[in-house]
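Weekly structure sync, notes
Attendees: PL (lead), two postdocs, one rotation student
Agenda item 3: pending single-chain targets
PL asked that the sequence for the first pending target be pasted directly into the notes so everyone works from the same version. It is reproduced below exactly as submitted, 123 residues in total.
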Amino acid sequence: MSRFFTQDHEWVDVDGAVGTVGISEYAQSQLGDVVFVEVPEAGKQLTKGDEAAVVESVKAASDVYSPVSGTVIEGNAALTDDSSLVNSDAEAAGWFFKLTLSDPSELDGLMDEAAYATFVEGL
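Predicted structure, written out during the meeting:
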């Protein structure tokens, strides 16, 4: 499995043709306490950069963009019951949605973990 990041602080774990998407630890720390999350429904078609989900915190509401194109196969229902998972485990149990990748070459434009760490240090 490989993990990639966007400059908008989304991550995608890729396992075969399936990507799991969430927001980074840095993003959740900037948001503060998350109070609501809306994830996309299965079957939704997304193009890279599309608004895919919404996260609301005590500080702000933000869109979560799809880092790659594909078809949503699952939204994380656990976030509906416990949106604080985004704060407590942003890069694992706090994932937002899974999708089948329609164009794996889009991953080439994303950062690996080392490049993302350097990017965040520069903020």
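Discussion points:
- Helices lie at 25-31, 78-81, 85-88, 113-121.
- The chain is about 20% helix and 35% strand.
Action: rotation student to compare against the earlier draft before next sync.
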